[in-house]
Amino acid sequence: MAQKIKHIRPSRSVLPVSVLLILLCVAGFLDGMDVSSMGVVLPIIQHSLHMNAQSLQWIISGYVLGYGGFMLLGGRIADLYGRKRVFIISMVLFALASLVGGFAQDGSVLVASRIIKGVCAGFTAPAALALLLGLYADAKERNRALGIFSSTAAVGFATGVAIGGFLGDISWRLVMFLPVPFVLLVVALGAIGLRPDPEAQTKKRFDLVGAILGTAGLLTLVLGATQAATYGWLAFATWGPLLGSILLLAAFLLYEHRIATPLMPLSIFRRPGLGFAGIMAFFMQGNYVSYQFVAALYFRSVLGWSGSQSALAFVFAGLIVVFMATRFAGLALRIGSTAVVALGMTLEALGFLWFFLMHGHMPALPLVAVTQLLIGSGVAASLPSINITGLVHTKEAEHGLASGIVLSAFQIGGGVLVAVTASVYAASNPAMLTKYTQALLVVVCASAIAATVAITLWRHERATK
Prior knowledge:
The chain is mostly helical. The protein is built from 17 helices and no strands.
């Protein structure tokens, strides 16, 4: 019989743990939804605000830039200054930025609001995940909660396309306004029910130099990756930021090794599974976002599907994640999270391979159904298991930082690999293969590498037991 859950929250709270879990999951859902919901309404925004194409892409890139660039800093600040405090403040600012963007009459104001929303999400996501870990003392219940949180964030990303498409038919501004009432509800109930962090060390010295170097390094990395899809890899707008990110991150690691109170103690990477989880997060998110990029173009240009029809195809995989993620989280607790990560990455790779081999050679329904079944099952298995692998061996005082590392890997993987895929798609030679096939080949190869690494580590763990 499972051990009875021990609540770490003060007993005077009027909200049960299940309600607090829902609140944190809503925050994760909104963060994921905002990544993908604006893409389908870009043509409408361009006509409404008279934006040029270069400015328009920053509505998407700006959010990803802030989200991926500030995740690590957000996680560490949550550890030092209180996860509840950081969570509530960043959610309020997220809502305010949504309102400003929704009322924007100028493209630059909308882009600025999207960047601010991304930065807020970079603080909200690791704080929410760290708060979730603090709700449970029992490992089984904690892993089950991780599965629920991971699945709702994934569903937010997967359904964001559909939500944006349906609301965009009415007004693109509704897509910006949508999070506001949910955020206000989360903030109101969270202020009542979430416990303050007794371990927050508000008097501890803050590593300002490390914060600047680390955040600047991540920002330039994501910036360079997002620029590649527009300007190509040989343009200075791409390789300049990427070179800068290498220098900044090298300086960050060197400085963190020498300082007494670092922003990111490098000793955290001695925690079993954290480095592996970061690598798998990079590939899992990057592969899926890259596939979605190519598949959405294929559905519209080749199959002639509308935006709503294409969105429903992706929602099918999201529903699989909803119903299966918690079950895979339980399986990870029984047989080991590394094994389930290997299973998930393999299923995801098989889904990409099926679409790669069969597109253009079979009817759309079986092509999409099998692809989404395999990919949805793969994400459902790997997403919660990656989080469990990366966080299970960290100390409570490190939960925010560890969450920030894993979540940063998810976002950076999405930015980097989709940039590679988009650049291959744009430079493809139709005389050799179709541009869809060439771009899909990138996804297949990357997913095969990730699955091989996961299987190799799993087999190594089995051999050493």
